[in-house]
Amino acid sequence: MTPLDELRGGSIGDEFVLLLHKTIRAVAVTRNFPPPDGLTKWDGEAVGRIVSEFVADPQTPRRLVDLATTCSSDQALKARLQGTVRNFLADLGRRTPIGKLVVRLNDVLGKRAEFVRMDGRWSLADGPNAPGLADLDRLAEGIRPHEILTPKWGHDARRDAPVADAETIALLCKALLEVAGGSLTSRMMASAIGVRLGLGQAPVSLDATSLDGAWSPVSSMIDGTADEALRETRATEIFALLNDRERLALAWLEYPVRELAPLLGVGPSQAHVIRKGATELLKIELVDDSDGEAVAAQVLELARLWTEQWTDSGGPT
Predict the structure, then answer these.
(1) Burial level of 58, CB count in 10 A (0-12/13-18/19+)?
(2) In terms of DSSP bridges, do strands 184-185 and 121-124 run parallel, antiparallel, or are they unpaired?
(3) How far apart are CA 50 and CA 60, in angstroms?
(4) What is the DSSP string of 130-154?
(5) What tens digit of pLDDT does each residue of 251-260 get?
(6) Nearest C-alpha neighbor of 201 from the set 130, 98, 290
(7) Which residues, at least 6 apart from 21, have a Cβ–Cβ distance to it below 8 Å?
(8) Which of 9, 90, 296, 303 has the fewest CB atoms within 10 Å, measured from its CB?
(9) In 14-163, where do the E strands start and end?
């Protein structure tokens, strides 16, 4: 039986499980998702753990019905399963500290008339809604003096209780928007608050070499029907978070570490750290962005253009 035959028969058979293993590994590596906690690469143990989580997830029966009824061939099943797995891994990513903070922030601001949201960006109701300054260090510094109040929980408080009460979240976001002088994404504000609280720093478990060569050219990734201006704005925000060497590392993503090192003027081990930091920043910034692939491609294109200017001028411009 084929994987699709198994699903139509109402069961998860060996062929579908094999396809699920292959799909999870392929999507995880090419889309730069981090391995499960405690693991450093997408080996058999890491993939097996995610397969188990996928099968046990309460939403999986619905996912399987969708696959069985929508797909007309095993080739169609393979293509649709890739999207299903990508969404599942993104959902797992939202369970990270910064991911949880994004959800918390959207919930708090959505209940307050002083904040408005448009095209995925928050602004003050009486303030400018054009994109604001997306400088993570400056934003984090701007809220450093603010006191952080946490909700008062009883003796049975949950370990995943909110890191700050609703009033604190609202005050911090208001301060961030004022510092930015315009609108910000939930992810940018959550990242700035995360710096203030010491949360969600880039994990060190991801093998950055898994991203080498995984990004497609910009022209093949950009959906012409989407809002190009918003993608460019988001890509510019993320690009601003990168330092010079990180930009070079992304521009020369196809280079092995041993060849990248002399271009960056560092040793191979440091070049590996620099590349890892850059790719993990992209992962964190775009983990819950539905248009993340296209935005990431634009970030890489910005890095390439910046690098061309850098090499032409003999240094950063």
Answers:
(1) exposed
(2) antiparallel
(3) 13
(4) SB----HHHHHHHTTTS--------
(5) 887 778 888 8
(6) 98
(7) 47, 48, 51
(8) 9
(9) 115-118, 121-124
d(CA 90, CA 187): 14
- Nearest residue to 226 (alpha-carbon basis) of 128, 285, 297: 297
DSSP annotation of 201: P
**Residues 90/188, Cβ–Cβ less than 8 Å:** no
Nearest Cα neighbor of 20 from 70, 73, 67, 69 is 67
Q: Encode pLDDT of 149-162 as tens digits.
A: 755 544 334 444 45
Cross-sheet strand order for the sheet of 121-124: 115-118, 121-124, 184-185
At 60, the amino acid letter reads T
| Residue 123: band (very low, low, confident or very high) from pLDDT cuts 50, 70, 90 | very high
Cα distances (Å, whole numbers) of residue 157 to 153, 154, 162, 200: 5, 5, 10, 21
Q: Which residue has the tokens 């293993």?
A: 21
Q: Which residue in the block uniquely carries the two structure tokens 């993340």?
A: 292
Q: Is 117 helix (H, G, I), strand (E, B) or coil?
A: strand
The residues that bridge with 117 in the sheet, in sequence order, are 122
Report d(CA 199, CA 233) in Å as an integer.
Answer: 25
Contact 278, 231 (CB under 8 A): no
